[in-house]
Every structure is written in C-alpha cells, then in structure tokens.
Amino acid sequence: SLQFWTNNSDETSSKNGGRKSSNWLVGAGKAGMIALWDTNNKEVIYTTNDTKDRAFVNPVLSWKAHSGRWIADAKFLSGNTNAITETIPSVEAPSRLITAGNDGTVCLWDLSAVSSSTRAPKLLHRTGKEYHSSGIFCMDVLSSSVNSSSSEMMICTGSKDKSIAISSLASLATSSTATKPTWRSRFHNAKVGAVKLQSPTSSLLASASDDGIVALHDFRTNGLGSGSSSSSLVSKLEDAHDRPHSVVWDPCNEFILVTAGLDPIVKVWDHRNLSEPIVSLEGHVPTFSGRIRKIHRPTFFGLDSKSRNATNKAKWSSSHAYPYLLTGGQGSSFVSMYQMGYNQIKNDDSFPQPSTLFSRGKLPMDCGESGSIAVNGKQVAVAVNQGEIIILEPSRFVQ
Prior knowledge:
Elements: E1 2-4, E2 12-13, E3 19-20, E4 24-28, E5 33-38, E6 43-46, E7 54-56, E8 61-64, E9 71-77, E10 96-101, E11 106-114, E12 121-126, E13 136-144, E14 152-159, E15 164-168, H1 169-174, E16 183-185, E17 192-197, E18 204-209, E19 213-218, E20 233-238, E21 244-249, E22 256-261, E23 266-270, E24 279-281, E25 299-301, E26 324-327, E27 334-339, E28 359-362, E29 373-376, E30 379-383, E31 389-392
Antiparallel strand pairs: 1-4, 2-3, 4-5, 5-8, 6-7, 9-10, 10-11, 11-12, 13-14, 14-15, 15-16, 17-18, 18-19, 19-20, 21-22, 22-23, 23-24, 25-26, 26-27, 27-28, 29-30, 30-31
C-alpha cells in the first residue's frame, strides 16, 4: 500500500522552506511495518554513466503497526497539521494516519506524538474482534456528506471474514469500548479483496471478492442479508474476472467503474448497464507470464492536485480532459499507461477511441515488476523488489 498526503493546496510554505506539502508518502506492507517519508529530503547517493543522479530518502518514521504478516492499507487523514514534533520538523505535515491489517484491526495514529523509546507514533484507537473476526484485506477512506448535513470521514473495510464494514472516524476516535461498524454487508461468500466508496455525495460502494463477484451496494440500506437477499445490493457482475481484486471509480465520470482480477484484462464498465464492459484493456501482462498470481491494482493518473478526491467531477492537469490509467503486470518490468476514452457513453467526436496501450514506462534495472502505485501530480511512486519504493516522472507530458 502506498499513498501521498495532500492538504488540498498547491501552495508552498515559507516556514516549510518553500516545499510542497504533498510530498509526504506512506508505505505499508509485509511484517506489519509502516514507513513515512518526506520525499523532499533526499540525498544524491551515486551517479551512473547512463542515468541522472539518483537520490535516496530515509524514512522519517518507521514502526511495526500490526501483528500478522502484512498491512492491507495505510491512509492519511485530514486534520490539524500544526502540532508537529521535532520528529516531523514541518508545519506542513500530516498529523493523522489510519491503518488496517492482517490481524483484523483498524488503528488510528497520531503522527504528531512520537515515542522517544519506540519511535512509534501514538496509538489513539485499535478496533477489536467485534469489528472484523479475521484479517482485513482492503480499506477506503472518504469524506462524505451522505449521512449527515456536514461532511464526516467514512472508513470502509473488507475482510477475510467475508464482510464489509463502514464506520465514521468520529465513532472510531471517540469510542472507549468495543467499536462496532455503523453499517455492515454480508453479501459476499468469500474474502473481500477490494472496496471503494464512489464520491463524497454518493452512497454507492463497490466491492470485489474471491467469490468472483463485483458488487455495487447502497450503504444507506440494510446490508446484513446474505447473497442476493441483501437489500443494499444495487447490481453485480458475476465472472467478470478470475478472483477480482480491484475496483476503482473514475473521478471524472460518475458512471464509470474499473475492475481487475487475476487475469490479463482490465475492464471498464458503465454501472448503469453491466451487460458488457465498454472497454477491455490488454497489453500490460506479457503472454509468457503464465498463471497470474500477483495483484496489480490500476490507478488513475493526471489529476490536478487541488481536485483529486474532491468530487467525481475532478479536473485534469492535461488540457485534453482524458484520464489515464496506470497498472503493472505480472512478469512485466514496465508500468503501462492507458488513455481512457468514453465516446461510447458521450456522443462526442473529441473523445478518442480507447487504445490498446498508450505508453509504457520501463522500470530501472533490477527492480523486477511493479507493485503498489501512488500518484502525486506528475510523480508516480512504485513499490518494487526488496521492499524498495522508487519515484518516477514522465520524460514527456502532454499539456
């Protein structure tokens, strides 16, 4: 899991040495470990004949956050950014982090209070077995105004216990006893590997499960019925993928959903008509890669940082208002880029026909294939072999 922090501002701070606040990056993965980097604090460590100077960034914080073999997700939360200790020496830094792991718990951390002995931030709350009875495989966090007149932070998780849970950050942060979700779905009959809330003003939630189903739920209605008896079920896709593991809403088009699984095709759907995909994207998985066993989640690229995650009517940094989609592929040493065109939905000749593959960025030698991907403007952070993370920028960007 990788994520850049943004505070919805492109402005730099004089107190922060003129640095942009969006260059904080969190990574979480194996052995329950989390690391936090300020990617501006980099040092040139070596130069080669065929590359530019390469820089290395030490983590500002690194700690074991969960028991178990891995962490599913780590997400920055908006909040007070002024109470920062010497450990994070910047007034423009994240102060809250939420994590979910294989131990079945969700943890809320205060990054502004760090232990001098363990070097771990203060743990504000940890959920128990009443939340999920088995490991958590995915998490999404979004500020939503659906259930109240004002916005509240919603936390959605999917688990090996086959359930989906939603809670508000307020209920999680203020609970002094066992934390129970405000909404739960037991629609799936296998591990839930992906969840994604649609937008701040929508009650739609997409999920993907090892049972072979991608489902759309309305979290305003009761989700406790199993299978098709769940009253929260809006629609579903059956057998769209071999063990679907990813669902991503297009931030530029409220009707578009992208899915992926353990097969070589990424599919794009109009959720108003799920009879067939409007686009099938191929080319990111080499033909010799064999049976697909690794997860590569597609990620949208090109968002203007002020608009990212703000609404489903986001602006794009390119004057050509077409989103791009990035993904790795099993056995591939490239990050593949697709340009998304939806002239099947909007009868507009200015929209391009979707191409098989728009571009590919080759990873440096010895990196292997890409893992998690996070986007920060033109920068793309990619997890590679040996737990390393590299940050890439396109050599040419369409304006």
